[in-house]
Design brief:
alpha+beta, 8 helices, three-stranded antiparallel β-sheet
């Protein structure tokens, strides 16, 4: 028993310890120094603690959905305008052992990244810059097209993953195009402002003409000459101004408002 207790620590010194976190699995790759052929262990290490030979390598595989970002610069549209995209694809591993055994740890970079970029380029090339980058009417169709193509490619390739979601973000046209759009919008706004100003002036002119016509009709109705009507309007104005009694009347000169000045 004493020798067994001594052998246990010695045995543990020659072992590797694996304890994956929740949401992770570790795929063991056996690499014996002398005997055996090694290879990928058929059973992954689940969350917990597992001991393996010191020559065994463990590859950590994240089993939860994971996001991969792709920047697409100078992607040509059907009318020859280069635009840029920020595309996102979310994938989830379904079989960690098959993934590492058949596709290795860098499975996305080696099998999907460039293919995904190619799908985006092909989808964008079918559409013009205006509908893709400005009106964005084509983005939903682009998403659907790439999503179907990506699912088909994953199935054909035999990748043990599933597509959770895929989104191609809003396209960004070149700065020259942006500046032209801003200048066009500024000119359109200027035209609208000028039209609104002109309309206001026309409406004011119409109101003045209507008021003048009404005054003239009133003058004729009460039987006054133009000079008499002007005198009447002056008297009405003086009455309004001098209603509080703060006016000085000058003979043959009408009323002159008086203002108190503080010393």
């Amino acid at each position: 028993m004493k020798y067994l207790i001594l052998l246990i620590p010695l045995g543990l010194v020659g072992c590797s310890v694996y304890s994956p976190d929740a949401g992770h699995e570790i795929v063991l790759i056996e690499k014996p120094w002398i005997f055996g052929h090694g290879g990928v262990d058929a059973d992954p290490v689940k969350p917990g603690r597992t001991f393996a030979a010191i020559t065994t390598e463990g590859v950590d595989v994240f089993m939860q959905p994971q996001k991969f970002d792709t920047e697409m610069h100078d992607t040509m549209t059907s009318d020859g305008v280069p635009i840029s995209f920020h595309a996102i694809v979310v994938l989830q591993v379904t079989d960690s052992v098959a993934l590492i055994k058949n596709f290795g740890p860098n499975w996305y970079q080696n099998n999907l990244e460039e293919q995904f970029k190619t799908m985006v380029r092909q989808a964008v090339r079918k559409r013009g810059m205006n509908e893709t980058a400005i009106s964005t009417t084509a983005l939903d169709a682009i998403d659907a097209e790439i999503r179907d193509a990506l699912k088909a490619f994953i199935k054909e390739k035999g990748l043990p993953i599933q597509l959770v979601t895929m989104t191609v973000g809003r396209a960004n046209p070149p700065d020259a195009i942006k500046n032209q759009r801003i200048e066009t919008a500024t000119q359109e706004q200027r035209i609208q402002t000028e039209q609104q100003t002109k309309l206001a002036e026309v409406q004011r002119k119409s109101a003045e003409e209507a008021r003048a016509a009404a005054d003239n009709a009133y003058r004729q109705a009460i039987g006054l000459s133009p000079e008499q009507y002007v005198q009447l309007k002056r008297i009405e104005m003086e009455n309004r101004v001098c209603a509080d009694g703060k006016c000085t009347f000058i003979e043959n000169g009408g009323a002159v408002p008086a203002f108190s000045v503080k010393q």
